[in-house]
Amino acid sequence: MKVAKITESEFRKMVLTSSNKLNKNAEFINSLNVFPVPDGDTGTNMSLSLASGYKYVSESTSTKVGDLGVALAKGLLMGARGNSGVILSQIFRGFSKSMAKKENLTAQDLADAITSGVETAYKAVMKPTEGTILTVARKAAEAARNTVKNTDDCVEVMEATYEAAKQALATTPELLPVLKEVGVVDSGGQGLTFVYEGFYEALSGNITDDEHVPNVEEMDEMVNAEHHKSVQSQLHTEDIKYGYCTEIMVKLGAGRLVDQEFEYDKFRNHLAEIGDSLLVIADDEVVKVHVHTEHPGKVLSYGQEFGSLIKVKVDNMRLQHETILEKDEDNKDDIEAKKLADARKNAGDYGILTVVSGKGLKDLFISLGATDILDGGQTMNPSTQDFVDIISASSAKKFIIFPNNKNIFLAAKQATELVDIPVKVVQSRSVLEGLSGIFAFNPDMDLEDNVTDMEENISSVKSGQVTIAVRDTTLNGKEIKKDDYMGIVDGDITVTASDSKTAAISMVESMLDDDSEVVTIIYGEDGNEAEAKEIEQAILDIDDDLEVEIHEGDQPVYPYLISVE
């Protein structure tokens, strides 16, 4: 099938196909996260970003491809989440500029647009790193330019682009040592490859519904992601449609009740009819299932038709959710709103926006002067639009943003260019750095001087995080086992231990030096005050001249956040 010109209908199909493909493969992309922590969200970020782009395209009534390209870029810009989503938005910003005035796209136009996208993305990243999505984009663009010299067929150009992206993706571990050590390709590059695959399939008319099927070992990571998307985000307990989280593992062909052979599609489709958040992973011997349903017994009995149950787990999510709600203070929204209103009075002309998750951490930021809170962080990267909405709704005359996560820097920076007041982004890589930075806020100082003082404060802080490993891996020569607790200091895994307390103590010991004076411990949802006090005592046993502070943060993912100043 030859396509000499891409019309608006074909372009819409290209964007839709790629959006669907990213959505379908988001969890696989997430699983490529280098660190074995429960925060691998590249696939989620890229999928949500492109979904926003497609929404803008679908709402456009234009019949010109150039106009649709502009709509795609705008939607990606506003919906961009995480660094991967922002880079994807920059690729298509350049893509759209190249085709802005085109009614249709020729093969040469397509190659030019792909090339323009790469140039824009490289300019947007302060220190481009090879072995990432940028490498994949660049190699794919080279193939597009070379191919168009010998053909006027858009299908051939897009096929060459996609194939080159695949080949470049395979080389990313050779270019980025950490990828090679862990044994994965770059997750952002994988996402872009899926995008180009969708473009090619739409143009060639050979759209597949395939998705990468991970192995059984990757199932736990996917379950974590499903739970993140599911029950905790429900506003009311009664909104939970399927109340029982049900997991089974079946040894195929074994057992007295086996009466049929296992067929993956038939098995999965049946379970899809009785629940949601469904994950089914299978090999020749075992099938593992995770599903939210009202009828866990039906899941168990259906599994027995194919083999023996070797693992069963059923949780009542409504009870879990009610417990979470009961922990919240009465009228907490009203209380938080009042605290923010008081903070705004004290901030003068300033707005101070911080990205943070956990009631205790929010209270800490508000007490130090934060006027606006954007719920997010690890696994929940806000979009450019989220930042723009808060700043635009404020009466402040200037804003300071604390991203508190390096994966949020680009979306925050992008937002500064879309609002009408001066906005600065403080480069806080963690909530601990954010807390240290906001401590320096002075409403009587100008914007530049405030940011200078804040970043000077941050430079004196060592930031540590304790979390649990979600898979076995080797990183920086360190053997890490699934379910180990890891101490991560300024982005590097420095210690591992079988329990969170030991990991925290060992981590702090590695952070201390002769200049250390204050240690701050913030315990999260999976930590507790009693254990935090045991960690405090262990720290004082190391050096009783240290000052140790303990705060309740309620943060997810990290049982303990610990800073040393």
Automatic annotation (TrEMBL):
InterPro entries: DegV_domain_contain, DhaL_dom, DhaL_dom_sf, FakA-like_C, FakA-like_M, YloV-like. Residues 9-201 form the DhaL domain. It comes from the Bacteria. This is DAK2 domain-containing protein. The lineage of its organism: Bacteria, Bacillati, Bacillota, Bacilli, Lactobacillales.
